[in-house]
Each structure stands twice: as structure tokens, then as C-alpha cells.
Specification:
Elements lengths: L8 E9 L2 E7 L3 E7 L6 E3 L14 E12 L27 E3 L2 E3 L3 E6 L5 E5 L5 E5 L5 E10 L2 E10 L2 E4 L8 H14 L4 H15 L3 E7 L2 H7 L2 E4 L10 E6 L2 H13 L2 H4 L6 H11 L4 H13 L8
Antiparallel strand pairs: 1-5, 1-15, 2-8, 3-4, 3-5, 5-6, 6-7, 9-10, 10-13, 11-12, 11-14, 14-16
């Protein structure tokens, strides 16, 4: 969350998460998680260690609050830098006003979490290789892009706004990342981001959005954002633009074949390209071809042993 102000001011921000919990944030903030009892409907606040949490997330209400944010247009504080690389450094490349919370300085407020709520789009693959995208909500989805990266060759189809349903052919793998980036940044700007914000967003998430595999990338309708993550800001801004990007990962026949061949060859460099999506891919392969279940299980066990060394994405 960026701030723009020509004068110094103190701000107060609160984000609610009615069907989930915030798991990461910066700078320092006050964090809350409440759980509703299924037996009598009573609500209690959970301790910071989340003991007794409902792991289904069905009964949770989370939130986070920054009570004293100093917005400082005439201040250029040193921003924290870790010894290793971080995707979030790219998010600073905007014209946003620096902020200070306590003794922590940044160019934005960061938060993310996990939740259980309906998403606006559903995607299914047909028997003839087409992709059907359906809008399950009441509002138009401003932009949806079907993307595929197969061994470094990429392609995409820009479906534009999704009002009801659309059927797409798989993209041909002769696309240009530069053109894709231009299209995506233009879509983000059309929804209210400044150009440098759009550039920073794409740069921040490029290794995740455009990694190996197939996925639908879309812009979340603004009313959905406000319903899922209600926002309060004081003093009330003269303008507010909230632009969120969603993604739906697709387990296509090409993805399953690539992973199956990599397992047969012991090709871990290819297997590792799918990273956190490997488990659902492996489950799909195992359920559809029981003869490969033992091979799949060995791969899954190896992945679980290495989880401690995998970095959060």
C-alpha cells in the first residue's frame, strides 16, 4: 500500500480479513485473529501463537492495524536491506512518499495472508485442449490473461474483460515477455495504478507469475477486494485505488507429461521448476495412472524432506 502526500501527516490504517488471517506484514503492526465457536457462536481472540486455531479457516476473522504511520514527503530514510536478494526491493521503485512506523522505514505497507473465500473466476480444461473461463461473481473481471511457460518458451492470450464465460485456445509458445509485460502494465494502469507502480508490481512478482507452467492471471474486481479485505484509512484519502492480481494455476496435459518424463529420467532441474505446485501435480498424475504411484511417492517424499530448505515465494 503506497501513500502520496505533499505534506507530512500521521495516518492510521486498518485492514480486516473476515474469512482469513494475515500471516506476514511490514512495518510493525498490531495483529488480531478471532475465532467463532461452532457450538455456540461465541467469539474469542486467539493468542499470537495461534494455539487452537481452526485450520480449515472457516471460523476465522483476522485483521491488522497500523495506528501511527508518519507519511514524510521531505524525508529520505535508509531502507532496510538484507544480505540476500528480496523481491520486495523492486516494489520500492515508485514515486510514493516514504513512511515511518516506530523506528522502521519503508516506501509502502506490506501485508499478506491465507483465507477461505470464493474467487471470482473458475477455469476448466476441455477434452480437446481448450480452456473455459467462467465468471462466478456479479462484477466484470477487468482483465484475464492465459499464460504458459514451457522450458523457457512462453505464450499468452489476453482475454480482456470477462463478463460471463469465454473459451480460449492454449497459447502458442512464440510470445515475447516484453510485449506481455507491456499489456499487463497497461491493464494495471487502466485500473488506477500509476505507471511506475504497475512496473514495480510486475517486476516484484515476475519470477512467480511467469514461472514454468500454465496459469490464468487476472485483475480482481474492486468490489471483491473491498469485500474480502475491507480497508479503513484516516485521514480519508482524496483518492484510493486498490488493484489486486489473482492467479489460477492450471495442471494441463503438457504439465503432467513434462513432470512424468522428468520423474522417469530423474531430472530434478525440471521437476524443481514447478516448486510449490508439485504436490497437486503429483497427486493428479498418481490418481490418473496408478502404475506410476510408487515413483510419484518417492518424489513426494524427497520434496517433503527438502521443504526446510525451500524459500518462501
Amino acid at each position: 500500500m503506497y501513500f502520496y502526500s505533499s505534506r507530512e501527516l500521521d495516518a492510521h490504517v486498518k485492514v480486516a480479513f473476515p474469512h482469513g488471517l494475515i500471516t506476514e506484514w511490514y512495518p510493525q503492526a498490531e495483529y488480531e485473529v478471532y475465532q467463532r465457536s461452532r457450538s455456540n457462536g461465541s467469539v474469542r481472540r486467539l493468542a499470537a501463537n495461534l494455539n487452537g486455531i481452526d485450520t480449515s479457516l472457516r471460523s476465522l476473522t483476522g485483521g491488522i492495524e497500523w495506528k501511527s504511520i508518519k507519511v514524510q514527503p521531505d524525508f529520505s530514510p535508509p531502507l532496510p536491506i538484507e544480505s540476500g536478494m528480496s523481491r520486495y526491493y523492486a516494489a520500492r521503485a515508485t514515486d510514493a512518499t516514504p513512511i515511518t512506523v516506530g523506528d522502521q522505514h519503508e516506501k509502502f505497507l506490506f501485508y499478506r495472508g491465507v483465507g477461505r473465500f470464493p474467487v471470482p473466476l473458475s477455469v476448466r480444461l476441455t477434452g480437446d485442449g481448450k480452456i473455459v473461463v467462467e465468471n462466478r461473481g456479479h462484477d466484470s473481471v477487468p482483465t484475464a490473461i492465459l499464460f504458459e511457460n514451457r522450458g523457457g518458451r512462453l505464450g499468452y492470450r489476453n482475454a480482456g474483460a470477462i463478463e460471463d464465460a469465454v473459451t480460449l485456445d492454449a497459447p502458442s509458445l512464440d510470445g515475447s515477455f516484453a510485449v506481455l509485460r507491456q499489456d499487463l502494465e497497461a491493464a494495471l494502469v487502466a485500473q488506477g495504478l500509476f505507471p511506475r507502480e504497475a512496473q514495480a508490481m510486475v517486476e516484484t512478482w515476475r519470477d512467480s507469475w511467469f514461472e514454468e507452467g500454465s496459469r490464468l492471471i487476472y485483475i480482481v474486481p474492486s468490489r471483491t477486494i473491498d469485500a474480502v479485505l475491507p480497508l479503513q484509512v484516516e485521514p480519508v484519502p482524496s483518492q484510493t485505488a486498490r488493484v489486486f492480481v489473482g492467479r489460477i494455476e492450471l495442471v494441463t496435459p503438457e504439465t503432467k507429461l513434462a513432470v512424468e518424463e522428468a520423474i522417469a529420467k530423474g531430472d530434478w532441474s525440471t521437476i524443481n521448476r514447478y516448486e510449490r505446485f508439485l504436490d497437486p501435480i503429483l497427486k493428479r498424475i498418481s490418481s490418473e495412472n496408478p502404475l506410476k504411484a510408487s515413483q510419484v511417492e518417492r518424489v513426494r517424499q524427497s520434496i517433503h524432506r527438502s521443504l526446510g530448505t525451500r524459500k518462501c515465494r
